[in-house]
Amino acid sequence: MSLKIVNGWLQDIKHVVSPFYNERPANKPISLLVIHNISLPPNQYGGPYVEQLFTGQLDPNKHPYFASIYQLEVSSHLFIRRDGEITQFVPFDKRAWHAGKSVFAGQENCNDFSIGIEIEGCDSDSFTEQQYQQLANVTLLLQQTYRIENIAGHSDIAPDRKTDPGPCFDWHYYRSLLAQKSQEQKLLNQIEQIIAELQKIDLWQITPPKPDAFLSQEPFALDTMQAHEWLQWIFIPRIQAMIDAKVNLPKFALHPYFEEALKEQEQDVNRLLNLIKQLDELS
């Protein structure tokens, strides 16, 4: 799923508007992401109760625990269920009430400058792969949109009160996913620029080479394709497929070959060569 934000709302997900939010202070840009866990009733998953809590509709008679919390005015920006479903309650540019009394890097009232994400879970259960994947996807988008500099758990900003996201939250795996997805996105963005440049200088083809051309055993299909053809019809699709398959990408060095192969090209290929060199550096 390709995610995007419009007017503070994540698109193509479930939206449930919470009344528990207000404006952010004008002098507090968003710079922190806070990760929480929540389950209602405690250690039980899948019901409607988190949504009801964040919208002030929790029935205290549904469970004994609810009698102690149903009057709370709390919310988060996002809630990620065990199956990866995302619900948004408050637009990102508004101040959700998720952190409470808190401090980060000497700044109090973290709600002022943070985005809060609740993950369905508890301190004693592992989180699901779907939740890690969605959290990493959302994190990258938020970092790109709001220039978030730091990520913390609720326990980091309110250590005397809170323990979440808890000892079962795998920070190492989450951060490795972020690094992997960030690298993949950089590669895809670079490939998009290369495609655009090939189209601009009329080296992008509509019709593929003959099927036999793809059977070459030579490096870069030297005996059956021109350099730009190999780039378009073999290399780019292969890298895109590997990214989609979540396999480790190889190191590659295309620039030396293309610098030699394109030196007699009539078109101005200087920008294309520079983009290919940048792609090498990303691998």
TrEMBL record:
Q: Which InterPro entries match?
A: Amidase/PGRP_sf, Amidase_domain, NAMLAA_amidase_2, YqcC-like_dom, YqcC-like_sf
Catalysed reactions listed for this entry: Hydrolyzes the link between N-acetylmuramoyl residues and L-amino acid residues in certain cell-wall glycopeptides
Q: Report keywords, A-Z.
A: Cell wall biogenesis/degradation, Cytoplasm, Hydrolase, Metal-binding, Zinc
The N-acetylmuramoyl-L-alanine amidase domain extends over: 18-166
* Pfam families membership: Amidase_2, DUF446
Asked whether the keyword Hydrolase is assigned, the reply is yes
EC class: hydrolase
EC number(s) reported in the record: 3.5.1.28
Which cofactors does this gene product need? Zn(2+)
**What family does the entry list?**
Belongs to the N-acetylmuramoyl-L-alanine amidase 2 family.
Q: What is this protein called?
A: 1,6-anhydro-N-acetylmuramyl-L-alanine amidase AmpD
Organism, by scientific name, is Gilliamella bombicola
